Amino acid sequence: MKKRNIDLVCDIAELISLAEVGKNRKELLQSAVASVAKHMRADVCSIYIYGEDERELTLRATQGLAKEAVGEVKLKLGEGITGSAVRDLRPVCAGQASQNTSYKHFPGIEEEKYKAFLAVPILRGLRRIGALVVQAKEADYFTPNDIKVLRAIAAQLATMIENVQLLGEAREKAEIPEVAPVKKVAKESIIRGRSASPGTARGRALTLGSEQHDSCLLPDPAAEPHSPQDFEKAVEKTAKQIDKLQRQTGEELADVAVLIFSAHLLILEDEQFAGRIAGLIQSGTPAVKAISLVVNEHVEVFSSSKMPLIREKVLDVKDLGNRLTRNLLDQKASECDYRGQVIIAHELLPSDILKLAAENVEGFIVSSGVTSHNAIICRSLGIPMVAVSRDLADGIANGEELFMDAGQGIIYLRPSDEVYEKYHELDDAWKALHNASAVKSKTLTKCGARVQIHANINLLSDLKPARKFKAEGVGLYRSEFPFIVRNDFPTEEEQFVIYKKLVDQMKGKPVTFRTLDIGGDKMLSYYSNVNEANPFLGMRAIRFSLQNKDIFCQQLRAFLRAGAGGNTRIMFPLIASVDDFEEARAIVHECMAGLEAEGIPFNHETQLGVMMELPAAVEVADDLAQEADFLSIGSNDLIQYMLAVDRTNEQVSNLYLAHHPAVLRAVNRIVVAALSHGKDISICGDLSADLRMVPFLVGIGLKKFSIDIIHAPTIQRLVQAYTLEEAKEIAGKMLGFGRISEVEAFIRARKLDVPQPG
Ligand code: PEP
Ligand code: MG
Questions:
Q1: Does the predicted model carry a pTM greater than 0.70?
Q2: Ligand nearest 484 Cα, by number?
Q3: Closest ligand 1 atom, CA of 634?
Q4: Closest-lying ligand 1 atom to the alpha carbon of residue 520
Q5: What confidence tens digit (pLDDT) does each residue in 4-29 have?
Q6: Mutate to test the pocket of ligand 1, among 197, 571, 636 (most ligand atoms within 8 A of CB)
């Protein structure tokens, strides 16, 4: 039966005039739902009202659902179809509600029998007032016209609710949310998470969430109409933009960003994508809607694929849809990127981070725990990242203004002016503290002993700051990044080009290559390993290399060749025994023999070292020191394995303690073993840049620190602040404590946690 839209609009107008003469608020809402249900021939109509403080929707009136549900059913912003519509400020229409990923079942309200679901937000400007929902037993019941009509009604209801308040009818404030005067700013709130990459970021939240994948993105009425020619132009413009982005990124991140946007271009040129959108436009579908339909179809297909490589394309296709729409609407190029936005995601791939960074994203909030390589990439790119729990991330509304102090892991929602002022000052202080020009080329203790500061390099782009902060060499090159972001193992030649750049740019200064450290939380999407129950205890690092000798040899040959004429070393991660080291060393010698026989130049003097990351290696440190040319302490993993605390797990991050007495003693044992065999010893985990630990490390005899080079000014100042004798005395004391609490009390008492003045 035809729905009577005109009558409905009239009835609502009448309701609004009733509100003006002071009808009871409850009755008003009830009359509204009854009227909307009748005229839309809907089996159910409900009104939810939004409370800004609790960020929650409460069912306030219903026709069709159980009456007892009124006041009881509550939805968080983003929860259920209705919560998603209000969060995203747009209607959501589901032909089969229970199949929508956002659907939430409430037992006892008799909702099961209604298949079709249409939720429209009630808004005043961009301010959320509530939601108007209709449901019907018949699937696919609501039409695009119904959506338009319900939107118009929702707009009028917002006025009504506001009028009710203005006319002093909102005595029962607990039931009707306070409709804030326009100028009132919602209260600031703070979320605490864990720092993954420092820095500050300001922007609006943008959730990359799967719950939106199957809901229909409705066109902005202002976007229509557009001709097929307009769409063609938008495709051309989009292709040019992506091409430019690819070239720029390729120049800046040559080691990892090779053809990173190629999937965008391939999808764009695909007949099933652009061709299908053009076809829909030709047959009368409004252009913006045609784009969103085809994008959503692709998102659904990609996200449900069993192949990780295909699932990775979800972000690409959404990004493409966004660009096409904006180009169609003729918006500025800058509006096609992620400027002014902080991405909230459950999971992010390294390639996503690189792409979003190239598109000027301000920062990331992630809720799945941060894999170490994601944190490392963000640090290298200088993009702040904070890890928070899933609940907290879900509580951040799309479009919400936020400010994050990622160094401290703090996120301010709806920040006040005071927050910005405070951070402005802190920013100045931070800049002064990390002033590269203040760094001296040599680091000496107060008594004049030499300590070297080297750089950890993750991406080639880190070389620039390494030179700026006067790094004396590269103490750790994490070679896995070119592997992680590619779609297949890079060839020997591709690797050689990258490693050679590294050696050349360090201009004769020492460079330590670390062989491939994948596995654990650093997975390759193209290498299908059996799913491991405990990946950190599984096929990781040197174990992978020894099992995959071809891949290992290609990398070793590329290292050896890149080292020709240079000052290079190779070290192996996750060595558990002398046997591991000897096996790896024998393969290096085979590779050297091969290169020699082929007449290819390489560094014959390449030193071979062990990364000390496992308790087992600590036990045999003496034997390893005897065999290897050098040892390097990988404290990030050493702490993880000594304390059995997953370094990526939010829940146990309070147990991941660099100053645990067991860690201090293990580090000391390694240093003693190396020095007693006259071997070079360095430290390259984050412990080396922990200011509380620097006097301890110098005190036990460490003279080579490899750090995220941004910390060089702080570490240099700290080293300069102590004589060797003073550092030894501190180390001796710290080694004597058996309790964590004793170490902590000592650190506080000696003010080791306070930065030294410059
Ligand atoms: C370490 O474990 O300390 C280390 C430097 O290696 P990564 O952080 O890359 O595992
Ligand atoms: Mg490690």
A1: no
A2: 1
A3: 3
A4: 10
A5: 555 565 566 666 555 544 456 677 78
A6: 636
